[in-house]
């Protein structure tokens, strides 16, 4: 061997020229250290690259400072758009009537009346209406005329920086769940799960809407709608699935849409939040399937509480071999840990209150009350 190394016990020991005389490195040790370093490097890279099914992929976005949009007042202009399914002429007229009854001025989207199969216009047209309303300084709120289907197609193309520069009220429910949660998670803006413009607005719904987006009542107790309490069907009855009293920010919406968002950057982080859920026209086995999926890929067991609305038309048929709606919800949610209350006045129903996403709230299963602990709008 040359002066740089020697063989001892079958192993080659390397002695660098400039190292102290008694410092040696075993090549076997070097290989082990390199292998350990490589494994740690790969593991770290995998952790950074792995999608967070629980919504942690958008942790940085969801950690943004919350922004409350300016409150509405009489005389304000609101943008009326159809970002999902199309409307009939009757639906458009009803939307105008509802909004004008609040003293608001309606600005229709350029493509409000478009029809493209099951969509209200092409993706480009619906996105253009959304961006136009976001950019217009005269428009103080963006009101979705109806839900249906189609908003999830738009989410990757939305200019969220435009919304952050121009915070304003965005409101709707059903398919609009996707837009409300995407804008909130990406910008921090509080959005509003409330009546679509073309729906029937009984006085209860109109009053709760007024409290949420005009008055910004704080605190506000969201009591059940009187007609809902009198409705004879069992799925209108309030039921405690797991008792408790908690507080946390509100996130949620339609169950079908929440399931569609999980695994994307637009799903809300439910940890420590009050998750509110509703759906319509889904048989109990379908609700079971969706909740089972959420249990497996979303940390709903880490939610502070779960507030369930009225699941309209979700009971099994008379000849179905099926668990009931309440049995299904209980079996899928009672063992998670957070308190769970069913039958709150939101969902695909006439009498519904407006829920601001991202705003602190409380849930008390004993009193059956969901309360807002702060305003969802800014009056300054």
Q: Sheet bearing the most strands, described?
A: 8 strands, mixed
CATH superfamily of the largest domain: Murein tetrapeptidase LD-carboxypeptidase, N-terminal domain
Q: What radius of gyration results from the CA coordinates?
A: 27 Å
Portion in helices: 25-40%
Count of the separate structural domains:
2
Q: What is the number of strand segments?
A: 17
Please trace the helix and strand order, writing H or E for each element: EEEHHEHEHEHEHEHEHEEHEHEHEEEE
Oligomer: single chain
β-strand amount: 15-25%
- Round the mean pLDDT to the nearest integer and report it: 87
Q: What is the CATH architecture term of the largest domain?
A: 3-Layer(aba) Sandwich
Looking at the structure, the CATH topology of the largest domain is Rossmann fold
Q: pLDDT below 50 for ≥5 consecutive residues: which ranges?
A: 1-62
Distance from N terminus to C terminus (CA atoms, Å) equals 83 Å
Number of helices: 11
User: What is the CATH C-level name of the largest domain?
Assistant: Alpha Beta
Helix-strand category: alpha/beta
What would the principal axes of the Cα set say about the shape?
globular
